[in-house]
Design goal:
Strand order of the largest sheet: 3-2-1-4-9-6-10
Number of domains: 1
Largest sheet: 7 strands, mixed
Distance between the termini: 31 Å
Strand content: 15-25%
Helix content: 25-40%
CATH architecture: Alpha-Beta Complex
Order of helices and strands: EHEEHEEHEEEEHHEEEH
Number of strands: 12
Structural class: alpha/beta
CATH superfamily: Spore Coat Polysaccharide Biosynthesis Protein SpsA, Chain A
Length: about 240
């Protein structure tokens, strides 16, 4: 599938080929590299992909990461925030990219090794609603967290509301990115959630758990129904 309509929304994949953070189980850099390449190939079918990487791995000496009209990588310095964990380092890198490198007025951020089997629906929904919402992110008031593995945001809103949030993230103190971003939502007026549960395939870097969501399960159907009902009533956050 190609991009939808004019001014396609760029997809920003975040990556760390050689892990540099606490609480990381999936550490095989060769497997991680392969997973990132698979993700890049997958998401290039939808729009231009920016790949942000912040490890000691030298992308410039790996021809499979060569830039083209649908792909561009940016390599960032290895973060000194090892003890603060992955979220801190990811948003530290994202801050620098959005502030100094991103030319477009919005973007869709995806944790780099994750594949969403229903991404065509996700991407189409974002295109239809890009002018109605400053931010599209799944957030849960029961757990007070926002899912940072995939979200859409306008550049000016990111710089105004999310820039420097990473300074409050610290995995060693259980101050996860999901909770810090959730706290920032109170200052963002126009946001909503995605219409369907993500059909995620991928390995968690933190736990090594293999995600595989079955869209036909009763649990997923109930969650999707909740989203439909909440959307009708203008509710911005999900129950669970």
């Amino acid at each position: 599938m190609s991009e939808i309509g004019p001014n396609p929304i760029p997809i920003v994949l975040t990556g760390t080929i050689i892990p540099n953070a606490i609480k990381t189980v999936h550490c095989d850099w060769k497997k991680r590299r392969s997973e990132y390449l698979h993700s890049i190939s997958y998401y290039k079918k939808f729009s231009k992909v920016y790949f942000l990487e912040n490890s000691h791995y030298d992308l410039s000496n790996d021809n499979e990461f060569s830039n083209d009209e649908r792909f561009q990588y940016y390599q960032f310095a290895v973060s000194k925030g090892y003890e603060k964990g992955k979220g801190y380092q990811e948003f530290q890198m994202l801050d620098e990219f959005v502030k100094h490198r991103l030319d477009e007025d919005c973007f869709l951020k995806v944790t780099g090794r994750y594949i969403y089997d229903n991404f065509d629906e996700i991407y189409a929904f974002i295109h239809r609603n890009r002018h109605k919402n400053d931010l599209i992110i799944d957030s849960f008031f029961q757990f007070k967290k926002a899912i940072t593995s995939l979200f859409f945001i306008k550049k000016d809103i990111y710089l105004l509301r999310l820039q420097d949030c990473y300074l409050n993230m610290d995995d060693s103190k259980d101050l996860w990115a999901e909770h810090i971003v959730y706290n920032a939502l109170k200052n963002i007026r126009c946001y909503t959630f995605f219409p369907k549960v993500f059909l995620l395939s991928g390995i968690s870097g933190s736990t090594g758990y293999q995600y595989r969501v079955n869209e036909k399960s009763a649990k997923i159907k109930i969650k999707n129904l909740q989203r439909k009902v909440f959307s009708v009533f203008g509710i911005k956050q999900l129950l669970r």
